[in-house]
Amino acid sequence: MSLAVRVIPCLDVDAGRVVKGVNFTGLRDAGDPVELAHRYDEQGADELTFLDISASASGRETTYDVVRRTAEQVFIPLTVGGGVRSVADVDALLRAGADKVGVNTAAVARPQLIREIAQRFGNQVLVLSADVRRVPLEQDATPSGFEVTTHGGRQGTGIDALDWITRAADLGAGEILLNSMDADGTRDGFDLELIELARTAVAVPVIASGGAGRVEHFAPAVRAGADAVLAASVFHFGAFGVSEVKADLRAAGIAVR
Question: Known catalytic residue: 12?
Answer without folding.
Answer: yes
